[in-house]
Design goal:
GMP Synthetase, Chain A, domain 3, two-stranded antiparallel ribbon, single chain, 135 residues, 3-stranded mixed β-sheet, 21% strand, alpha+beta, globular
Length: 135
């Protein structure tokens, strides 16, 4: 892996990525990297329509765009890198949401419930007095 690609991977700001749909990046051959000194740095390959990419990014960011030209294969690798990063982040968020929902449900019902997880069942008995004493 070349040095520029490594630097770009390590410089990607996940907050910047949250504003742009991954599919849009793939279709238009670009990856926003980071914001520095009022410039948004964006990696593009030879197939990118810079005018269109600029238009897309102006809808989300008030910064001037600086393009970093990289090879087609390096852009694909960058996209794969952010795809796996976004995917694992989304999975963690969904897991947390499910846990919060289950705990909220348990707290609100104050009843004995059964949760199924794969092939095993977990029985949760809630004691209303115990929960009340915590709060």
């Amino acid at each position: 892996m070349n040095e520029l690609l490594n630097r770009l991977k390590n410089s990607i700001n996940k907050e910047v990525l949250k504003h742009i749909d991954e599919t849009l990046m793939e279709q238009n051959n670009f990856v926003p990297i980071s914001v520095k000194d009022k410039f948004l740095f964006v990696a593009v390959d030879s197939n990118a329509d810079k005018v269109n990419v600029n238009k897309i990014l102006k809808e989300h960011f008030p910064y001037q765009i600086k393009f970093i030209q990289i090879s087609d294969s390096d852009l694909k690798e960058l996209l794969l890198n952010i795809s796996s990063s976004i995917s694992s982040s989304v999975q963690e968020k969904n897991k947390m949401k499910r846990s919060v929902f289950i705990l909220s449900f348990i707290f609100l019902t104050g009843r004995e419930i059964f949760l199924k997880s794969g092939s095993s069942s977990v029985r949760i008995v809630l004691m209303a007095n115990f929960i009340t004493s915590i709060y």
